Amino acid sequence: MSKVIFKTAEEIELIRESSLLVSKTLAEIAKVIAPGITTLKLNTLAEEFIRGNGAIPAFLNYNGFPFSLCISLNDQVVHGFPSNYELKDGDIVSVDCGVIKNDFFGDSAYTFAVGEVSAEAKKLLDVTQECLKRGIEKAVSGNRIGDVGYAVQDCAESHGLGVVRELVGHGVGRNLHEKPEVPNYGRRGSGMKLLEGMVIAIEPMINAGRAGVKFWNDGWTVSTVDAKLSAHFEHTVAIRKGQADVLSTFDYIEEVLNKV
Ligand code: MG
Ligand code: MG
């Protein structure tokens, strides 16, 4: 997709519907994520839930990706494969999900803590989620892509964390990946101007150590060069005047996780 595709109000509501289904799917994962469950089981549950809600798992067969979820453990950054690996206490696991419903995509990701995680992991999760929030705050009409990237980068680097450069956020619509690219780094006031009708996925990928990544021979998995932890949070948002309209939500996940 070479040009930004602007969305009508009706189209944005369809993207919201798809995004909320992604959010509900991630909450289904939140219900079962615990030591002992395999990441392949999470994938199966997600696929069943998505199809049961009249939608299609967007990642399955996307450019040949063989699963419905990207599940990236610990030092994996993004695009990890579900497998027979059993989650264990102390793992962090990024679950990235997309659906297609009514011909529109929704895209969101959340990094879960499995059982008790290290202080380093907790900080990484908290800061990465904060980075997403800061990026969203800048994703308003009249600002530029660089304002979003700067906000994310500044948040991460002020905590001594590394910002992944090789992978970026993106426009979302009838395609999973549209213009513009939404980097997690940048200069204030630079890049494309954000305008109403644009829908973008903002997705900080933040490393506990160095920013560098390596690409696996499986053609998909990306992990940190120094084998330190990486986290990833993502929302699909519509650009508006004054404040972004966040089309996906972590509320369903948090309802599950905060349950005593
Ligand atoms: Mg995603
Ligand atoms: Mg995305």
What would the keywords be for this entry?
binds magnesium ion, 30% helix, 260 residues, 5 helices, Creatine Amidinohydrolase, five-stranded antiparallel sheet, four-stranded antiparallel sheet, alpha+beta
Q: What layout of secondary structure does this protein have?
A:
Blueprint: H1 9-32, H2 39-52, E1 56-57, E2 69-73, E3 76-78, E4 92-101, E5 104-113, H3 119-138, H4 145-158, E6 162-163, E7 169-171, E8 178-182, E9 199-202, E10 205-207, E11 213-215, E12 222-224, E13 230-232, E14 235-238, E15 245-246, H5 251-257
Antiparallel strand pairs: 1-4, 2-4, 3-12, 4-5, 6-10, 7-8, 7-9, 9-14, 10-13, 11-12, 14-15
Report on the biggest sheet: 5 strands, antiparallel
Q: State the CATH architecture.
A: Alpha-Beta Complex
Oligomer: single chain
Ligand roster: magnesium ion
Q: Overall pLDDT, averaged?
A: 97
Describe the structure.
With 260 residues, the chain is of the alpha+beta class. The protein has a single domain, classed as Creatine Amidinohydrolase (Alpha-Beta Complex). It is built from five helices and 15 strands. The strands form four sheets. A five-stranded antiparallel sheet has the order 8-7-9-14-15. Strand 7 (169-171) and strand 8 (178-182) form a beta hairpin. Helix 1 runs parallel beside helix 5 and helix 3 packs antiparallel against helix 4. The protein is globular, with a radius of gyration of 17 Å. The model has no long low-confidence stretch (mean pLDDT 97). One magnesium ion (MG) is lined by residues 96, 98, 107, 109, 203, 234. One magnesium ion binds at residues 96, 98, 107, 109, 203, 234.
